[in-house]
Prior knowledge:
This protein is an alpha/beta fold. The chain is built from 10 helices and 10 strands. Strands 1-2-4-3-5-6-7-10-9-8 form a 10-stranded mixed β-sheet, with helices on both faces. Helix 8 (about 210-220) crosses helix 9. The longest helix is centred in the first third of the chain and has 23 residues, at about 1-25.
Amino acid sequence: xxxxxxxxxxRRGVRLATRIARAELGLSPPPPAQPRRAGTSVQEIAAxxxxxxxxxxxxxxxxAGVSPGQPxxxxxxxxxxxxxxFAAAAGWTxxxxxxxxxxxxxxQSDFNHQHRCFRWFQPAHTARGQGEAESIAEMVTTxxxxxxxxxxxxxxxxxxxxxxxxxxxxxxxxxLFAAGAAVAGLPVGAAHSPMQALARMAxxxxxxxxxxxxxxxxxxxxxxxxxxxPRLSIWQGGADTVVDPANADxxxxxxxxxxxxxxxxxxxxxxxxxxxxxxxxxxxxxxxLWTIPSLAHGYPIAQGRGAPFxxxxxxxxxxxxxxxxxx
Length: 327
């Protein structure tokens, strides 16, 4: 009996080691498909090209169907969130149905990260052609081909780790994305390891010149890219205790420097305590920064029941971001 138990233990160890090795080589089988929810137009696309980041691809299709030439929106969930649940709570699925725009919903796994965070802090997952960034780019290419989307109007939005990854994608793939939005995110190049990520979430940094921040973006873009750069909408709560609110200021500084814009905003408008500053042309600003003093760590909505990390905050980020993108 003891020999039998030892043999079974050995077999389990071999199977576990094999699964780990296959995963590290990108050979692991896809995880089980997420069940389709009643009343939603959601499908999983298992074969979407290269998948070095080992992510899953969900797509939300508008209830009325997709017409050729529509924009495409990528929605990146935050740590611990479920992709479709976040997109619904934040208002993106409703916007998709209203405008007829398909959504790509990348799904992180706890195999990749124990808290299901997109790994915005690891160059192996943010560099062009590598890791999770490349997996998401492959999803975009597949969705454009399958649904006949407009390649000039591809957008990405994310919360927290998803927001930081959204900014990283704009930097690495400026030829793929027209614009993006980072909610409670961090600047490109702020961290290059898990420990650095935790440090920068607690205390924004590093302290460097605007030109150095802009160079952090250019350094990961294609060497031949001469512009234009993707436009960026930035959102941050003043009561955020997870991500230092100063990160939003650094991200705005980074994008202003990238566009060669001055510190003084073109417009500075307040709705009570909520403030929005924009830089660049009045009709199509290059950068905007929304600050909400009472908002904790989360994605702001204006109506509805709210959800974890999607609180009522007196302004609908999704509506404003879509307007910034010209949708």
